[in-house]
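#structure-requests
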Amino acid sequence: MKKNRLQQSLRDLDGWASANGNYPANWFDDYLNNGSQSTLAFNALFRIGLLEIKKELLQARLKIAPPAPKNLTTGIVRMMASDAILIESLKGTGRVANDTLDGITHLMFCAMATGQFRLIAPFHQTILLALEGGYGVEDGNNLPTGTTLRYAAFGLTIIGDWLGKPLDLDKHALPRDPAWGQLVAHWREPDPDKLAPILVAACDTHVQRIALTSRELDSGNFEFGSPFEAVYPAEILAILNLRRSLGLPNPSIDHPLMKTPYARLTCPPGMRFEPDELLMRFLAAACKHDPDAVPAGLYEAILQNSAKD
């Protein structure tokens, strides 16, 4: 079953990545020009970020190997900006945005996997404040359909450990999952030979929790519902990069999940790219039209992440 779930997702990836869903162009243009349709524009930014990810996956499938996965990184940063601004805009309303805490955690892992460490602290702080304030995103006290939030608990524990800002899992009714627990406990292990079997077991968990049907996804027993989430080992690559940032040696990982072209879509910590002009225009519009919706430090972190000073 381990191999079948991964192989089925690899077969499904082409169709998924080739589907370029449309959105009305005026959603974005109206917001950039006059600040109208803000919520639609925030969601449109998320969608066009996803299109960049799909573009990267298609290139990787065709064995087109750019020096660094720029499209993937562009897409991830756009989606993080969308989530952060939409969540911040809901402060004081008690309403929630579309993305789940699992999805948000996955985005942070993707950012780490592609070396975008500067974005993590302001994004993470935005999520913590939202959880404390009861807006933007739901925790385990108001569990969304189709998840136990065990992936979020796993990821936020590791990210909080790295940032020195631990999350109170019990307060937010987030479950400790034994399958991810060994990685939580040992991700800082200095001996790569001791860490290797733990990472292989985490790869097994990833593949076992790929949902192949909507019924499986709705059951709450699976973490990875899209072909991208299935074939991209975001949490594994993120932890390898976290260790690099701390000067810890990494083992080689002998597992099918790490042998696809998509597992090579990673960048070292601190990797910088040319500025994303569309995102810069969007952030400038947000600062002008909805300044209270731009989380503290987010705009500065994205600017610092670009190659131009």
